[in-house]
Amino acid sequence: MNQWMKQQISNFSWRKFAVSSVGLLTLMGILSFAIYEVTKVSVTVEVEDELDTIYTHASTVGELLEERGIDVSIHDYIEPSEDTALTEAMNIVYIPAQQVMVNIDDDEKPIWTIAGTVQELMEELDIVVNEHDVIEPPLDTAVTADMTINYETAFPVTVFSDGEEEEIWTTSTTVADFLERENVSIGDLDKVEPELDDVLEQETEITVVRVEKVTDVVEESVDYATVTRNDSSLERGSEKVIQSGSEGRIKKHYEVIFEDGEEVSRELVKEEVVSDSEDRIVAVGTKDPAPTVSRGSSSSSGTVSKGEWMNFTATAYTAYCNGCSGVTYTGIDLRSNPDAKVIAVDPNVIPLGSRVEVEGRGTYLAADIGGAIQGRKIDIFIPDRNQVNRFGRQSVRIRIVE
């Protein structure tokens, strides 16, 4: 009996001790967990505009982010810094950086940024986007990793066209693209300065010259020629018109170039005969008249004596007068020799071939005749038509030199 009781007492003591030990361990675990939880620091973490309250035993901002599985890059934004010690109710802001490609006026380079929109990125880069600038994608577009942003700075261009001047803002482009964009049409003959394939990269001036090519047809008269024929039935010095001349007509086709409405060139490209001219035919007498006064004598109507000064009436003529052939009676081509010193005379008074001095004018060759030149009259050859008109009719003194 005693032995059984001892055994029971012994079994009860060990069982009670075992139960007490398990309870103590459990209590200690609960207390430890409670103490662990109570000693955590409460902080607020903002990641990409999302707020999260975190309880942590981390001692620094960096340890906390590492706990959260956040791999911090040197381009990321952290406030406060990673080595800052955590304190109760601390606010931590973390913004991960993204790499984008930024092409500014054809200069492309990678940029790390924490900007949320294209507008914010431009502000980060200290770029003021004006209303005429070109940016793609638009400013309100959200920035995403590996996106490409193209930006072109606009500048003013002055355009002179169709008599007007206009200032237009544009970005870097060719002259041709710019004119097409602004609806400025260019004709095949129009001139543009600078050249159409030149690139506009700064403030400049573009000039458009309107070029027009037209054909101008002008009808002109063609002078008739005077043909002389020797006639032995007429006395020398006399003439008779056998056929009156008539002018011809010709059409001249000109290629005319206009620039901005002003003619700059005219080129003859074709001639078309409308009607032919008819020659004027004049019979010139070759019959020698009966001599009335010997060469050595002098009278009011006969041959002038050599060396003797006499009063004559003088007129003037050109090689291009109506009915003139331009060739003297003695065969001198006055059109080819405009400087020839020639007079027309009455051969009954001054023999052809004589050297005649006209007082105050010099020495002339008596080499021509004329139907109206009879007696003491001479007709002085002057190449300039205006001078002939001004000469009129004058009284002169002459003498035969040889």
Question: Can you walk me through this structure?
Answer:
The structure is a single chain. The protein has a 6-stranded mixed beta barrel. A 4-stranded mixed beta sheet has the order 2-1-4-3, with no helix packed on it. The chain is α+β, with helices and mostly antiparallel strands. The chain is built from 5 helices and 26 strands. A hairpin with a 2-residue loop joins strand 1 and strand 2. The model is unreliable at about 290-300 (pLDDT under 50). It starts with a helix and ends with a strand. It is about 15% helix and about 40% strand. About 15% of the residues are buried.
What attributes characterize this protein structure?
single chain, 402 residues, alpha+beta, Ubiquitin-like (UB roll), 5 domains, 6-stranded mixed barrel, 4-stranded mixed β-sheet, 5 helices, 16% helix
Architecture blueprint of SSEs:
Blueprint: H1 2-38, E1 41-47, E2 50-56, H2 61-67, E3 77-79, E4 90-95, E5 98-104, E6 107-113, H3 118-124, E7 134-136, E8 148-152, E9 155-161, E10 164-170, E11 173-174, H4 175-181, E12 191-193, E13 199-200, E14 204-209, E15 211-222, E16 226-235, E17 239-243, E18 248-259, E19 262-275, E20 280-287, E21 310-317, E22 342-345, E23 355-358, E24 362-368, E25 377-381, H5 385-391, E26 394-400
Parallel strand pairs: 1-4, 5-8, 9-14, 16-20, 21-25, 22-24
Antiparallel strand pairs: 1-2, 3-4, 5-6, 7-8, 9-10, 11-13, 12-14, 15-18, 17-20, 18-19, 21-26, 22-25, 23-24, 23-26
